Amino acid sequence: MKMRKGAKRKYDSTSRSEAAKTTRELIISSARAIFLEKGYAAATMPAVAKAAGTALDTVYATVGKKPALFRLLIEMAISGSDRALPAEERDYVRAIRAETDAVPKLRLYAGALSRIQPRLAPLIRVLQGAASLDSELEALWQSISQRRADNMRLLARDLAATGRLRSGLSESKAADIIWSMNSPEFYLLLVEQRGWSLEEYETWLGDAWIQLLLEP
Length: 216
Known about the structure:
Elements: H1 2-42, H2 45-52, H3 56-63, H4 66-79, H5 91-98, H6 102-130, H7 135-161, H8 171-181, H9 184-193, H10 198-213
Helix pairs in contact: 1-2, 1-6, 2-3, 4-6, 5-6, 6-7, 6-9, 6-10, 7-8, 8-10
């Protein structure tokens, strides 16, 4: 009898965990759709709760207040995970660092961006429009920009270590070139406004970096 009770408790715990995970996923997907449709200022937490089919208190308990929820959406879009992941824990970063030649490093990064930007760029557009309205969002925007610049310095250093970086091109300039072209704004210009396919975007980005950054 005791074993059966223990098994029941384990089952109930698993069920509750799965239900909580499902609720979180519904909240996040609903929030993303509402932020993208209405913008940050017009999106409300009650609307998120209604769309997710849950109580407002559950939304707050699960993902926090509105700025925290939006930050979570951004971090998830960057990491491609259900939580924020440091750069060194992302699969594509590990793959880039494992490569010994600069060309596949750049191709891998271009491929990663073709997967990341469809998730991230629309949210960044919302963030840029709202940053001036909320100090937390302004800080988030500055943090993302600086973090991206710091990560590109690491990538430029990695490229330089292969011995393939173009003669006369400093690591800092190489980092700035990558930083400018890996921006969500750059993606939106080419894919959304000019109608490029993701395949065209990925191929061109890799080709451009190889020509701009590496010795022939």
